[in-house]
Every structure is written in C-alpha cells, then in structure tokens.
Specification:
- The complex is a heterotrimer of chains A (about 290), B (about 110) and C (about 300).
- With about 290 residues, chain A is an alpha/beta fold.
- Chain A contains eleven helices and eleven strands.
- Chain A has a nine-stranded mixed sheet, with helices on both faces. In chain A, strands 4-5 form a two-stranded antiparallel ribbon.
- Chain B has one domain: Nucleotidyltransferase, domain 5 (2-Layer Sandwich).
- The two termini of chain B are about 20 Å apart.
- Chain B is of the alpha/beta class.
- In chain B, helix 1 packs parallel to helix 2.
- The longest helix of chain C is centred in the C-terminal third of the chain and has 24 residues.
- Chain C folds into two domains: about 220 residues, Rossmann fold, CATH 3.40.50.300; about 60 residues, Alpha-Beta Plaits.
- The chains are: A alpha/beta (about 290), B alpha/beta (about 110), C alpha/beta (about 300).
- Chains A and B meet through strand 4 of A and helix 1 and helix 2 of B.
C-alpha cells in the first residue's frame, strides 16, 4: 500500500505528517519511507536514519563517436530538447538540457551514439531505530531536473507488500506527479488560509487526472478562516485530521522532533487515520 | 558576408529584438550585395534550448556574425564552437536598418 | 525621441524551504515600493502555486495561453501491437494492452513528449500533440503592474513559463522606465528557481528557524553562489526558536551574508492574507510591518546606492 503525502503549497506540514505517520505505524507494520522532495529533502532530520548506502542518481547522456559519425544530423533533428547541435564538423551535446530519453541513440543510422551515466544527484538508503526502511533522493546543487531522481529512488525500492509512505515535493507539477501517480492514496496537507485553499485546488486538479482517492489534513487550524473546510465539504472530500496551531508544536518541529514525540497522544490519532485511509482506498476500488 | 539580426518584425524599419533565442524574427543581411530576407524564428515554439536551436539556424544559413541584445550561455557556446562572431547593442529602440549601419561602422560591442 | 538605456534592477525572493514567507514579504515590498520613489514591476514566479495575486487585488488586463510540452498519442486502428513503443519509453508512459484486441496506449500524465516512440514506430501510428500547459497574465494591482501565471495541474514546470513572464515584465519595465523588478520566487532549487534567479542583481533569502529551515537555506545559498548572485538574508518567524535564529545568523556569517531583519511570528500575517492585503497595509503599526520597512530600506540602499553615487 502506497500513501503519498502532498500539499500544493510549500510549508504546510507534509514532512511533519509523513514522518509522524511512519513513526506511529512502525511498531505495527513493516514501514518504508521515501523522501521524494529531492530539491530540499528534510525527512531524514526527523526520522534520523542510519544511512547504509549512497548511490549516484544519473541521467544517461549521449556520447557520439566521431569516427563513425557521418554528420547526417538526424540526432539533432529528433532531439525535442535541443540538447544537440551540429556545429561545423562536430556534434555538441548540452548536458543540462538532455532528458536521457535515448531517442538520438536509437535513431542514429550508423550506431555512432552510446550512452554514459551523468550523475545529477544521490540516492541514499538506510534504516531508523524503529526499523523503518528509509530512502531519500537529493538533487545536486545547480542541476535543474528533479524528476529522474524521484523515478530512480522509487525503482530502488520496488516491493508492493510493504506500507510505503512517500513525502512529496511542494507544488503540483511533474515532480509531484512522478511521486504520487502510482499511490493508492494521497494525503493532502493544507492550512486554513487563501494560499492553502488555492494550492489545494491545484493538487485536487492533479488527483482528478490520476483518479487517486484522497483525504485532507488541516494543519495550523485556527490561524486563518473556514473557507478551506467549507470548500472540502462542498466537494465531499474527507477531512481526516485537524491539527490546531500551537507554539509548542512549531517549536518542537524547529528542534527536529516528530509530532508524535512533541505530543504522544497523536500516535493513536495517526493509527486511527491509517485505518480510515485503508477503508477509503478500498471504497474506490469497489465499483 | 552574411550577418543575422534578431528583430521584432519582418522589415528593416522594425525594431531590433533584444532577445536572441526567443526573438520573433531574424533578418539575414548580405553585406556584399545589400540584399536581405526575414525569417520567422521557429525556436520560440520550443519548450527549451531556444538559444541552441537559434544558433543551429545561424549555422545552417552560413551566418558569419549574429547580432542581438545579448546571448545566453548555451547560444554562446554553440555559436563560438561554430566560429560565428557575436555582437550586441545596448539601445533597444533602434531599427534593424540602424543596427546594420552600426555594425558596418564598427560601433557595436563584440560579445565574448 | 532617443531612448536612454536605463539599468533595470532585479530583486528575487527565495528561501529553499517552502512556506517561509516569500509571498508575504513580496506583497509587503510591493506595497512599500509603490509608496517610495523607486517604482517597480512585479512577477510571481511560483507558477506552480501562484499565490501573490491573492493578496495584491490583481485585476487581469491580458491573458495569454502558454504552450510548451507535447504528448504522444497512439492511433489504436493503426497500432500493430509490436510493442516497440513500450520498449523504448524510458518514462513508463506507454501502457500495455489490457485485452487481446486493445492497442498500446500512452499515459499522458507521465509522457514527457520526448518522441522516442514516435520515431521508433514502424507504421507511423503515433502522433505528437502540443499541449497548453498554462496561462500567463498581465495584471494591474494598487501597487503597480504584476506579471503572473498559472501552470495547469500536472504540467511540466521547466522554467520556460517563468522566463516568459519575466521577459514580458522586463519589456514593460523598459517601456515605462521603471527602475525595479521584484520576483516572488518558487521553493526548491531546481529549474524554476534557476529561471527565476537568472539575471537577478540581488536575492532576498527568507529564512525560517529550525532544522528544516536551515538545511534548505544552505542549499539555496549554495545554488546562488554557483550562479554568482549576491544575497541578503532576513529571518521570518524569528522568535519561534531562538537557537534556530542564532544558527541562521551563524550560517549567514559563514557565507558572508548580512542578516537585514528578524520578523517575529505575528498572527496578523495570516489575517492579512485572509483580508487580501499585504501585511504592511493591513497592520502598518505591527512589529512585523516595521521590520519589513527596515528590510526594504536596506534593499533599496543595496540596489541603488551605486546609481546614487554617480549623480
């Protein structure tokens, strides 16, 4: 069972929720946690895993063997990203534009192109004190593309028997889609403000495309107004939890504590919510 | 020699376009016989790498000097590799005709 | 009339971590700038989650469609079920047929438009369809003109849309001789951030105390250093966790950045959001507003002191 935690708006508390959910369930089930916010991963600061292995995350770049190249220019023509240019008697490759799709390699009529891996980040694997299997991706500074790392991270942990919690990046674009598209349930974390509502709607737009069952957690309840709740009621989207704003929570998170460490009563709230999530995802399956 | 100027329109009286990769038009001018031709820049419809595909366009048209407001790093790399000189103008309110004149009198900045 | 080329100064507001208060600061700066002598044009570069318009009473003057990506589509009548498209797709975007007389299909959500399948199909059963990825707007606010966009849900955020709105804002600024462009940046460090920061004269980093805040702050700092963009730091929700603020001060010192303001956590800020106003307009006497005023003065000096000394 794969549960993705997403939000649309940044800073609503995705990492707080995903790490606390994982920690609450750790005693009862084998849990896997994947931090897919590869531009700014934070979950490791809270779950504190022991990292056992780090591998490079790569994009496959084309390398043209000039002795075989006939300068026909087909590779330049088929590249949708303008990552190749024919310049005089050379073919130039622009690594940061290359998406690693392999099209140029496939289409070269003389087989002059081979591929080599270019590292764009890292994937780390570890385990926490309470036996949560932990994985995270991290994008190298100045690299533009997070999505290949997210896909590679997920491939490293392919196993459907385990409960997997995925911490998604903020936003509602392709990196988020890469994280959540195969999730059985998406838990949306929002805040009761106009920004929270606007970005929640973006995320709901994505979920209508992926047709994934979802539920919402309202974090920092009390700081804004009731429009988010009203909207969710209108759309019949279940609110699974409301966490009121409390300075003790904010301070504890700043110090790197899990919500369930700051307020242990939340542990049972999360285990109850997990049961609701299972129920809601089953409802979607039955016609 | 063949030079290419980024332009906001398809006539010599139109204002030059300060952008290279995403310029609306390119005006190709032959300094030897004073002939010119306008091309709509197809790179503006691309999702990325417009500087590169515009540079490729320069190379495919035998251009010796490209003239624009500035050149991004990818365009710079491609054009340099192709042996195409780059010149820039500061004032964005000049027509293509004025830019051509400025090039011929050597008053444009050479872009390195 | 001869055009006097003028120097447009670009300020970009970034953080690394989401939710630190970039948009809150951006809206407040827009308000303060509109009251100062240096007028500006404003850009919301967080096209994925564009919130600035919610607090600036933006009235749309122009709407433009934005097309960037494309997706592949397999014609089920022509498909011979050879499976080459499935084999070549590196993005898991080709679905195998479910039943015997079904064809291969493209999952448009995952399709990156690389066209590898298009070129590989032996019977030309695949075509490429251009997609509208979003819209961008030129709007008027009480504080000046604003250029912003909405990326459609699940679209690719390559930075092209960010570059488009910046370009248009820049042309507007040049046409109207405006000295300043303020860009409300997106979270993270990837492509949209890189596009938002390109050409910036100065970055304002909005930092949040705490382990996540400082971790992500260091990543955005390293990104700015890579692209050689100078920065100033301010701390938002500064009184949340004293040690956290001290750690940020230390990090700033390590990278030789000046911390130009510490804004305390203030419930008036989410309230100002609810009231669709910048905090400096909603609660001008609040401590947050007063500190933001000081922050603006420092930024103004940093951006324009060179021009001042030339007079």
């Amino acid at each position: 069972m794969k549960i993705a935690v997403a939000s649309g708006k940044g800073g609503t508390g995705k990492t707080m929720i995903s790490t606390s959910l994982a920690s609450s369930l750790a005693g009862e089930f084998p849990i896997r946690f994947l931090d897919c916010d590869v531009e700014a991963p934070n979950a490791h600061l809270f779950l504190k895993p022991e990292i056992k292995e780090t591998l490079p995350a790569v994009i496959l770049l084309p390398e043209i063997t000039m002795e075989l190249c006939t300068l026909c220019g087909i590779c330049v023509e088929v590249c949708e990203y303008n990552a190749l240019a024919k310049v005089g008697t050379k073919i130039l490759v622009f690594p940061q534009l290359c998406h690693g799709c392999g099209s140029c390699t496939l289409q070269c009529p003389v087989g002059a192109i081979t591929e080599y891996p270019r590292p764009i980040g890292t994937i780390s694997k570890g385990v926490t004190d309470d036996n949560i299997i932990f994985g995270m991706g991290e994008l190298t500074i100045s690299e533009p593309m997070p999505t290949p790392i997210i896909n590679q991270l997920k491939t490293q942990f392919h196993n459907n028997d385990v409960v997997t919690i995925l911490d998604s990046p903020p936003g509602a674009s392709c990196a988020v889609v890469a994280t959540i598209h195969d999730a059985d349930f998406v838990l949306l974390v929002t805040e009761p403000t106009p920004f929270g509502l606007h970005d929640l709607k973006q995320m709901l737009g994505v979920l209508s495309e992926t047709d994934t069952p979802s539920g919402v957690i309202i974090n920092r309840d009390g700081i804004g107004d009731a429009k988010v709740e009203d909207y969710l009621a209108e759309q019949s989207i279940p609110i699974l939890m409301k966490i009121p704003y409390q300075e003790t929570i904010a301070e504890g998170l700043a110090m790197g504590h899990l919500l369930t460490e700051i307020m242990p009563s939340y542990k049972s709230e999360f285990t109850k919510m997990f049961q609701q999530i299972i129920e809601l995802s089953r409802q979607k399956e039955t016609p | 020699m063949i030079i290419m100027i980024s332009s906001q329109g398809n006539k010599l009286e139109d204002l030059a376009d300060p952008r290279f990769g995403r310029s609306q038009w390119f005006i190709r001018y032959d300094t030897q016989d004073d002939t010119w031709q306008a091309f709509e820049n197809q790179s503006i419809y691309q999702r990325g790498g417009a500087g590169i595909s515009s540079s490729q366009f320069m190379m495919d048209n035998g251009v010796k000097a490209a003239i624009s407001g500035s050149f991004g790093p990818n365009a710079h790399q491609a054009l340099s590799a192709g042996g195409i000189e780059m010149y820039t103008f500061d004032d964005n309110q000049q027509s293509v005709q004025e830019i051509i004149k400025a090039f011929q009198t050597g008053s444009l900045n050479k872009f390195n | 009339m001869p055009n006097i080329p003028h120097q447009l100064k670009q300020l970009v507001i970034l953080s690394g971590k989401g939710g630190t208060g970039k948009t809150t600061l951006s809206a407040a700066l827009m308000h303060l700038i509109s009251q100062s002598s240096s007028k500006g044009v404003f850009v919301d570069a967080d096209v994925d989650a564009a919130n600035l318009a919610l607090v600036t009473e933006a009235k749309i003057l122009e709407t433009h469609p934005f097309t960037g990506s494309q997706v592949a589509q397999i014609n089920s009548d022509e498909c011979t079920m050879c499976g080459i498209c499935y084999d070549v797709c590196r993005f898991n975007a080709v679905k195998e047929p479910m039943e015997t007389n079904d064809s291969y299909k493209v999952n448009e959500l995952l399709c990156e438009g690389c066209a590898a399948c298009f070129h590989s199909c032996l019977v030309s059963a695949i075509r490429l369809i251009k997609q509208q990825d979003g819209e961008w707007y030129h709007s008027l606010t009480p504080y000046g003109h604003q250029f912003h966009a909405e990326l459609f849900p699940a679209a690719e955020n390559t930075g092209k849309l960010v570059t488009t709105i910046k370009q248009n804002a820049k042309l507007f600024a040049e046409d109207h001789q405006l000295p300043l462009m303020v860009i409300d940046g997106p979270p993270g460090i990837g492509c949209p951030v890189i596009s938002a920061s390109a050409g910036a004269d100065l970055a304002l980093l909005v930092a949040e105390p705490g382990v996540s805040g400082i971790h992500d702050l260091e990543r955005i700092i390293k990104t700015l250093q890579h692209f050689k963009i100078p920065a100033l730091v301010c701390i938002n929700k500064a009184d949340l966790f004293d040690k956290g603020s001290e750690d940020i001060q230390q990090l700033a010192r390590d990278y030789s950045y000046e911390v130009i303001g510490e804004i305390p956590f203030d419930k008036a800020i989410p309230q100002s959001m609810v009231n669709a106003q910048p905090i400096t307009r909603f609660a001008p006497g609040s401590e947050a507003s007063q500190i933001i005023q000081k922050i603006w003065k420092k930024i103004e000096m940093e951006l324009f002191q060179e021009s001042v000394s030339h007079d």
